[in-house]
């Protein structure tokens, strides 16, 4: 913890008015919606056959098919929401992060409802875009349900683990809690999303392969973005002037905290 920051507990952080919290929350919700709207159901492939010799300790025979890794295209951007989620918990505390998770949850529900209504409305005669709309916005109820449940559970696990680890490490070694929270949070997210959305549609082997490879790629993404996370966290902390430690608060997702 920087000696220039005032340490406060989670309850005080929940009641405090922060200068940049609203902007971070807006970015969090925007990335969440866009990453779920674009690419969630698209399978992509990348040739990683050249890495098997350089990293022989990884289970390449299981992860790759003919030297290629299959993954959900949305993971390229969705982990950014977890980076911002880490920033929210690290800088503003669990109670404020909880507000953002619920805001994102409601936004996801509204997006699903709006997509359903727009796709279901009868197209005007001569308008040829209905098939494209159905392809892009007509996600099945399973994908919608999987997205909402996976986000809600994964994000709360991510925030809880990070907040607890911050207290345990006394604010030191930020990288341990950003990566550690992602291992658990993204694990729960992937464990819920892919079976709920695609089991019975994709083969069981494909579901398991994509689930595990996506989880690994998300964790690697988080680790690769660690310098960025350090820079962003440091910037916000310096301007907010406090270091929030989540002690003496209720970690239930349904708990309420007084806030400005």
Report the helical percentage: 55-70%
> What proportion of the residues form beta strands (DSSP E)?
5-15%
The main β sheet shows up as: 2 strands, parallel
What sequence of helices (H) and strands (E) makes up the elements?
Answer: EHHEHEHHHHHHHE
Radius of gyration computed on alpha carbons: 20 Å
How does the overall form come out from the CA principal axes?
Answer: globular
Q: What is the total number of structural domains?
A: 1
Measure the end-to-end span.
25 Å
Number of helices: 10
What's the mean pLDDT score? Answer: 84
- Strand segment count: 4
List low-pLDDT spans.
none
Major sheet: arrangement of strands: 1-4
Specify the structural class. mainly alpha
Protein described:
- Helix content is about 65%, strand content about 5%.
- It has helices at about 10-15, 20-35, 60-65, 80-90, 95-120, 130-135, 140-170, 175-200, 205-225, 225-240, and strands at about 5-10, 45, 70, 240-245.
- The strands form two sheets. Strands 1-4 form a two-stranded parallel sheet. Strands 2-3 form a two-stranded antiparallel sheet.
- α2 packs antiparallel against α4 and α4 packs parallel to α7 (about 140-170).
- The longest helix has 28 residues, at about 140-170.
Summarize the structure.
By secondary structure, this protein is mostly helical.
Top keywords for this entry?
4 strands, 7% strand, two-stranded antiparallel sheet, globular, two-stranded parallel ribbon, 260 residues, single chain
């Amino acid at each position: 913890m920087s000696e220039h920051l005032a340490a406060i507990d989670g309850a005080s952080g929940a009641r405090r008015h922060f200068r940049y919290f609203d902007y971070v929350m807006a970015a969090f919700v925007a990335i969440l919606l866009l990453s779920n709207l674009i690419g969630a159901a698209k399978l992509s492939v990348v040739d990683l056959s050249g890495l098997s010799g350089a990293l022989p300790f990884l289970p390449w025979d299981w992860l790759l098919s003919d030297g290629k890794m299959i993954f959900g295209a949305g993971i390229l951007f969705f982990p950014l929401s977890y980076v911002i989620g880490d920033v929210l918990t690290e800088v503003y505390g669990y109670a404020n992060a909880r507000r953002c998770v619920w805001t994102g949850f409601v936004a996801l529900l509204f997006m699903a409802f709006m997509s359903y209504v727009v796709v279901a409305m009868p197209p005007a005669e001569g308008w040829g875009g209905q098939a494209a709309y159905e392809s892009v916005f007509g996600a099945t109820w399973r994908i919608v349900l999987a997205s909402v449940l996976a986000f809600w559970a994964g994000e709360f696990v991510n925030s809880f683990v990070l907040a607890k680890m911050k207290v345990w490490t006394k604010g030191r070694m930020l990288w341990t809690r950003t990566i550690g929270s992602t291992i658990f949070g993204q694990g729960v997210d992937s464990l819920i999303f892919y079976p709920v959305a695609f089991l019975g549609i994709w083969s069981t082997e494909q579901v398991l392969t994509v689930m595990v490879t996506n989880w690994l790629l998300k964790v690697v993404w988080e680790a690769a973005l660690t310098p960025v996370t350090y820079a962003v966290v440091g910037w916000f902390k310096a301007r907010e002037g406090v270091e929030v430690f989540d002690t003496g608060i209720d970690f239930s997702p349904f708990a309420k905290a007084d806030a400005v």
